[in-house]
Structure formats: structure tokens, C-alpha cells
Design brief:
By secondary structure, this protein is of the alpha+beta class. The protein has two helices and nine strands, in the order αββββββαβββ. The strands form two sheets. A five-stranded mixed sheet has the order 4-1-7-8-9, with no helix packed on it. It has a four-stranded antiparallel sheet with strand order 3-2-5-6, with no helix packed on it. β2 and β3 form a beta hairpin. The protein starts with a helix and ends with a strand.
């Protein structure tokens, strides 16, 4: 019986480590629609397709993942708003990665003039929101 308990504890520990980004940083990406209409967002990486998501005005979508061991994970987001379209790297490592942290938060605000990014979930406008890209 004690041996079974030890195996159960070890199995639970390994599952916990495997799902908690033990060896690599965890990324959390948040996308908020600040346009007056619905937008469609399609997020994918080389290995994962997160599908299409229709966000109503003020709607949000978020996802998280463990970075690759070499820190090379990429997720592209395709955005449609009426006739407008844009594709961008929703990790924006140069804007979202903070040194010394193991969890990176990347907040996106989709506005009529384009895309803003921040490491903090703060009210707009604020100097911590960085204009990233206009609609194409």
C-alpha cells in the first residue's frame, strides 16, 4: 500500500510539472476588441491552431502556453474587421517580455486606428500602451 501511494504522489507531481511550465516561461496573451463592431481573430502557431474567434465590441479572448525550451515559440494572429485585415505576431517579445519574470503577460487592444500592446492591463490611453501596427 505505501508503494502505491508513493507512485501516486510521483505521478501527480510529474503531471503538475508538465502542465505548469516548470522549465520554460509561461505566456498569457489577452486580446480586447475596442472597435465599435465585432472582429474575427484567428490565432495559430506552427503546432497549434486555436481557431477563429468572433469578439463583439468590448469582447475579449485569451490563451496561454508554455514557451519552447529555446524560447522560439511564435503565435500569429489574423484579424478581420469589416473589409480591414491585419496579421501580426501576438507575442511581440520585444514589447511583452520582462526580464526576471517567468510569466509574460501580453495585452492587445484592437482599436479603429490599429493595434496597441502592453505588459499591463491598464486603462487606455496610458503611456504604457505602445502603438504596434495599423490596419492593413
Amino acid at each position: 500500500m505505501p508503494r502505491l501511494l508513493i507512485h501516486l504522489i510521483l505521478a501527480t507531481t510529474f503531471v503538475s510539472i508538465a502542465t505548469s511550465c516548470f522549465f520554460t516561461p509561461k505566456w498569457k496573451v489577452y486580446i480586447t476588441n475596442a472597435t465599435p463592431d465585432s472582429i474575427v481573430v484567428h490565432v495559430r502557431s506552427k503546432d497549434d491552431d486555436l481557431g477563429n474567434h468572433t469578439l463583439p465590441s468590448s469582447g475579449e479572448y485569451d490563451f496561454s502556453f508554455c514557451d519552447s525550451f529555446l524560447g522560439t515559440s511564435r503565435f500569429n494572429g489574423e484579424f478581420w474587421w469589416g473589409q480591414k485585415y491585419q496579421i501580426l505576431d501576438v507575442l511581440a517579445r520585444s514589447k511583452c517580455q520582462r526580464f526576471g519574470f517567468r510569466v509574460y503577460d501580453c495585452y492587445w487592444l484592437v482599436r479603429p486606428e490599429g493595434f496597441y500592446v502592453s505588459t499591463l492591463n491598464i486603462s487606455f490611453p496610458d503611456p504604457l500602451w505602445s502603438f504596434y501596427k495599423a490596419w492593413g
